[in-house]
Amino acid sequence: MNRSELGRHAEQFLELLFQDLDRWGVSLDAHWDIDHLCYRTSTENEYETRKGIFGKLGDQLIESEVNGRAIATFKLHEAINFRGYRIDLIELPAPKSGKLTPTGFEHIEVVCDVPFHELEARYLDLTFDRKGLEKDLNRELELCLGTRNVKFHHASLESIITLEQNQDVFQALRRSGVLRDLHLRDPLIVGTFPLGIEMKNSDLDILIFADDLSTLAQELEMRYGSLTGYSLETYSVGGEPSVICRFTLEGIPFELFGQSRAPVHQEAFRHYLAEERLLKFGGVTLRESVMRIRGEGSKTEPAFCQALKLLGDPYQLMLKVQRLGTSELRDLIKFL
């Protein structure tokens, strides 16, 4: 399989999938991103063969064992372009033991900005697989359409891989137990670490839900009050009462940020999604510019706006950028 054959197979799969979506009345919001394609294999030998093929068409970002089987991810040298989407990641899972899997593309994964229960409410007559909601890191909700499916996430696979490859941070995150302990508060990791644009002393930012701020404060005190550098403040952020909890574990500073709205509705999450898409479409040029500006002392949102020559309140501007469709986003960065 060469690059043109891969592109042809991918486009054929995507065209059929979008026909399925149209048939079932499913639409993807214009500012959502198709994060990656998943290619299934039927045997271990075929998995190894495809791994070699994809390794020639892109860079292998990671291969890790998940639930007893290997999964490799590749970043293509030349992205697949389909209906304005730019898809440059392919996930290649080894087959599950005892499960017969046809060879070929099986699903896409989409980064969305709505809570999963709201997504399910849009399509009450359709079938969703909710097993992925039990995951601690980057939960997923799968829309089951038959042989071609869609999985929804709140962070891109590349961002999760970037976080996992930062071993100091990822091991501190695992040992903290934050994602497990606060599972019912829908924790979301945002900020510079998953984007790979952290600086010295950057915080590991985690957004959480608080139906009652006083109860949340008590819980955080109980769980993390004995850790180095622990502090807790309650004040208004963007007009919303908020709890900010800080502590350090294994040299990594954590910041937990709680509000009474779902993390996917919090402004920090929308800033993160905007920055994630900008880095994807802006590539090395934008990343280097942002890192240079951050190195001069700028915070993240102002650094992006300065790099893009956007004038105004950077935090409000990034909220607007987050809702841009793909063509508008391309226009924003085309002069970089």
Q: Mind explaining what this structure looks like?
A:
The chain is α+β, with helices and mostly antiparallel strands and 336 residues long. The chain folds into three domains: 3-157, 2,3-Dihydroxybiphenyl 1,2-Dioxygenase, domain 1; 174-262, Beta Polymerase, domain 2 (2-Layer Sandwich), CATH 3.30.460; 268-333, no CATH class. The chain has twelve helices and 13 strands. The strands form two sheets. Strands 2-3-4-1-5-8-7-6 form an eight-stranded mixed sheet, sandwiched between helices. The protein has a five-stranded mixed sheet with strand order 9-10-13-12-11, sandwiched between helices. It is globular. The mean pLDDT is 95.
Structural features:
2,3-Dihydroxybiphenyl 1,2-Dioxygenase, domain 1; 5-stranded mixed sheet; 336 residues; alpha+beta; Beta Polymerase, domain 2
Low-pLDDT sequence parts: none
Mean pLDDT: 95
Helical stretch count?
A: 12
CATH architecture name of the largest domain: Roll
What is the domain tally?
3
**Rg of Cα set:** 20 Å
What percent of the residues sit in helical stretches (DSSP H or I)? 40-55%
Fold-level CATH name of the largest domain: 2,3-Dihydroxybiphenyl 1,2-Dioxygenase, domain 1
Strands of the widest sheet, in order across it, are: 2-3-4-1-5-8-7-6
Q: Name the CATH class of the largest domain.
A: Alpha Beta
Instruction: Give the oligomer, counting copies of the same chain as homo and different chains as hetero.
Output: single chain
